[in-house]
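> call design_seq(struct)
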């Protein structure tokens, strides 16, 4: 086993390595928004993590704890009222619950609704559905308490893909584990 693949040696986080992270995500009032208890691997230098998180992780190694404060523009953007649509209930599947997500709105929905956005159903009325294309954390300043659980070199495939396979920061909450992003 070559040294650069050693999981116990002190490898610092740099671009093109994979960091296994756990975290607690809170808003500025200290409310827990998300908790990642089992380590998940992210490609540093790819598309998996927000830039400010990558910058904060540079030079850290397994066992380190890192706190990051993100303003909305550094995280999931400001809340955009233009991404909220009131659509006919009949366009959606019969089995519909608040919190369900759709990649783009169903055929027949508002023409001005962007197709490549993940919409969350926020309200269901007898005749209408409110679909919100904002990220659930849009408009929120967040505090991220990270723990580096492990660091390894990225494979050629991961570097080529720009991802270690998990892009939490692109996936909306509620997506099943291992679900493809697109």
């Amino acid at each position: 086993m070559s040294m650069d693949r050693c999981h116990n040696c002190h490898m610092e986080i740099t671009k093109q390595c994979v960091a296994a992270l756990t975290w607690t995500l809170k808003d500025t009032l200290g409310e827990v928004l998300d908790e990642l208890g089992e380590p998940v691997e992210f490609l540093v230098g790819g598309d998996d993590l927000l830039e400010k998180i990558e910058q904060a992780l540079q030079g850290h190694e397994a066992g380190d704890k890192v706190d990051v404060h993100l303003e909305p523009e550094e995280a999931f953007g400001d809340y955009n009222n233009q991404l909220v649509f009131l659509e006919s209930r009949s366009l959606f599947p019969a089995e519909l619950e608040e919190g369900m997500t759709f990649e783009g709105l169903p055929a027949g929905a508002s023409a001005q609704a962007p197709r490549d956005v993940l919409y969350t159903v926020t309200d269901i009325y007898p005749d209408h559905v409110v679909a919100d294309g904002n990220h659930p954390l849009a408009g929120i300043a967040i505090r991220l308490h990270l723990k580096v659980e492990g660091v390894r070199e990225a494979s050629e495939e991961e570097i080529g893909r720009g991802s270690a396979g998990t892009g939490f920061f692109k996936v909306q909450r509620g997506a099943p584990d291992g679900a493809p992003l697109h």
